[in-house]
Each structure stands twice: as structure tokens, then as C-alpha cells.
Amino acid sequence: MKKVFLCALLLIFSMSEIANGKTDKPIQIQEPDEEEIGNFDFLYGNGDQDFDIMEMLIEEAFSHLGTRYRSGAKGPSAFDCSGFTSYVYKQQTGIFVGASSRDQYARNTPIRRDEIQCGDLVFFTSPNSGHNVGHVGIVVDVDPVTLEFTFIHASSKNGVKLSSSTEPNYAKRYVGARRISELSAL
Questions:
Q1: N or C terminus of the chain: which is more exposed, having fewer CB within 10 Å?
Q2: Cα(65)–Cα(140) distance, rounded to whole angstroms?
Q3: Do 100 and 166 meet the contact criterion of CB atoms below 8 Å apart?
Q4: Three-state secondary structure along the chain?
Q5: pLDDT in tens, 47-82
Q6: How far apart are CA 139 and CA 118, in angstroms?
Q7: Which residue(s) pair with 154 in the sheet?
Q8: Residues of the chain by 3-state class (helix, strand, coil), percent to 5
Q9: Whole-model pTM?
Q10: Interatomic CA distance for residues 60 and 54, integer angstroms
């Protein structure tokens, strides 16, 4: 408590000297470095090209919001979960990510939860898959602090929709995430 009081006293004393012009040091206001402002490469990968691809990918995914679900459907008038993810990736990148959710899980690069970024695939069990992969979606937003994410997917009940990793149904069924390694070659 004494330290806090002393710090507050010093701050008040130094501010009164500045206000009364009793300081021999000019006050310098540091301007922000223009190159640092808006530099979010650490969030979006290796530069503008990766960001543009992800932006187009997410835009493509959102353009199908509300599209109905149909088992085995590969789009664009209806989708199942893996049909949706493979269709979106094929349309915007030309990359084949796999035919089924299990294939997509097996064929793409495993990543930890703290590495998830927009455009990554996230996998869940389904009621019919036991403890195996049975559902997939595309990440559209990530909270880097809590590691919670929002994903777009073809839901069997509601068609293409947004969901959150915090929804109890998905939180308990989360299996893992994969990154499409072929994107780095584009």
C-alpha cells in the first residue's frame, strides 16, 4: 500500500512540475510507426495473397448460407457437410480437399487448436460415427485468446449455417482441425 501511495505522489508531483513549466525536459509525443499500424500478417498468414484467398473462400462459403442439406449432395443446390467443404474449396482454389469428412480429416495437415485460422477445417463426431469423424465445417472466425471459433457447415437439420465451438453440441463432439497444405503452394 505504501508503494502505491508513493507512486501516486511521484506522479502528482511530476505532473505539477510539467504544468508549471518547471521541467527542463521537453515533452515528446511519439508518433506511431506507420508500418506497424494495420500489419496483421501474424493473424492471416504469409501476406496479402493468402488473405485474398481466404477472403474469397469465406465469401463463397457465406454465399451458400441457408442452402438445404441432402445426404451425399455435393452442391450447389444442396449439400452434405463434406460436400459443402469440398465444393467451397474447389470453387475458390481448385483444390480437392477430400470426398468425405473422414477423408478430409486423413488427407490434410493436422493443427493444434491454438493454431486454428480462418479457412481451416474443423471436425466433429456425429451421432452415427461413434468416436470417429463424422462432420466437418470451415472456420470463419477465431478468438485468439479463448481459442473459440465460429464455423460454417452443412447441418443435417438446418442446411448451411453458422455455429460456434462453444455450443454444447459441438463443444463435446470436437475431434480436431486440419489445414489445407496445398494453399501455401498457390
A1: N
A2: 13
A3: no
A4: CHHHHHHHHHHHHHHHHHHCCCCCCCCCCCCCCCCCCCCCHHHHCCCHHHHHHHHHHHHHHHCCCCCEECCCCECCCEECHHHHHHHHHHHHHCCCCCCCHHHHHHHCEEECHHHCCCCCEEEEECCCCCCCEEEEEEEEEECCCCCCEEEEEEECCCEEEEEECCCHHHHCCEEEEEECHHHHHC
A5: 455 678 899 999 999 999 999 999 999 999 999 999
A6: 5
A7: 160
A8: 35, 25, 40
A9: 0.73
A10: 10
Residue type, 68: R
CA dist 129 to 43, 132, 162, 166, Å? 33, 5, 22, 21
How long, in residues, is the chain? 186
